[in-house]
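User: Please predict structures.

Assistant: First:
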Amino acid sequence: MSDLRYALQRKVLVNVYQQKQDVVYTGYVTIVDDSGIILTTFDDGGSEDGAVYLTYAVIELVEFDSDDLDNMRFRIEIAAQQTAVSYGRMTTDFNLKRPLIRQVLETSMIEESVVMVLDRNSGELNEGTVTRISDHDFDFQIFDKFQLENHPKLVLPFDEVELVEFEGKELTLQTAAMGYLETMASVETNRVTSLTSIAKALAHAQQTKQLISLNPVADEACFLLAV
């Protein structure tokens, strides 16, 4: 916690590593309370990309000095000079009058914005919206972009949430598209795996300008969307 307060006071760029997740957050500590921090984050190109609330329990390591951070400082400077994109930056002002996590969730509920929540018990990271909030818990409506008809609702106590990603480019775009996405129905998945079938599918996609998903053999968990 002292490292994070130092980063806040000195406005130092840091890498924050998590206990159980591979995602590393790079950014500036914006505010600190007794339970966690809010970190303004940046994408790989150096552009500001929303923020994340992190509890102390989920943080494994805070890095202040590294080649990666030196490279990121350079990219942030270049991006600040070149980029004209303003959406996705953190726009909410926070204070220490109330718990930070409550402020983040209340803002999401009021603005009907999509956030990403890490549930400590399940270990799952889900996107969705906050539909109700009380003194100790909140209702979270999950949005599953891979199964559009699936909209489970969770009741999560504040102390079971390890992080909340909010604002940012992807979440801002998803918030804007939610009205349309909620009207869509799932379609049957059509998969091809043989070289001949793949070649035919790619030729057809080229002719029809169809959106397709490509899964590399070397990393089946990875996928690429393309036209």
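Second:
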Amino acid sequence: MSKNIGNYFYDIEFETQVYEGIYWVPINSLGKTRYTSAEMFEISKLSLENKRKKIGNLYEAIQLFQISEFRGCLDNKNFWLNGVHWQTHKTPEEAVLSNEGCCATDTNWLAYFIGDKYEKVGCFCYGNTDGNGHITTYIKQGKHYYFIDMMMCRKDSQKFFCQESGSLDDLMHTEWAGFLFKSKIPTDFCQFYIECLKSKNRDVPYCFYMRDTCSATASYKNDSKVAFYVPTCDKPHLIYKDTIENHQFLEVELPL
């Protein structure tokens, strides 16, 4: 039985420059799978800890993610404190056990399986002026950072983009966020991300930040100001912000 999964190929090789300092590479660049889909289906039946022991790299994690049919839903816990809208996120263990959730949950799902498989695994996030944001994954290995959006790796997201090919023409005519990109400098990826969003006529983030973990996020917005709040326990690090003073990024203690 095949080791391919969704739009990804276990043995394809390419490295395509898509922007200055940014390269599109196959999911298997960070390790090839040892399992067929049938074997991964059997792994999906194992206990939480035994499943984790079987997963050795990003490709294998995405195999399990799709075969487990992780479902997208709004699952954050919401509360308001002093006019600030806080959302707490599932832990990595809760993400795997529930098998459903939002971008924060699928990011934490991946962290459960590969958090100790590479030099560094963390969250790559952004905030928009409407008070919404997005959370994805970065992987640091060697001299490069790798970026992957697990929301687009779900089985039901595969219909929105093409198969891995390395072709720039394919990439220009598809939903780009379902692929793996690498860069030596994270801010270069921010610029690439902005250009991709502009090309799709989507809102452009005013800030990008990285964080070690993903426990909670908050935002505040009125007619003249927007602010994102990230708890210091997640060890956030702002890597890009526009020059508008009333667009704010704040590191705060988690108010729980």
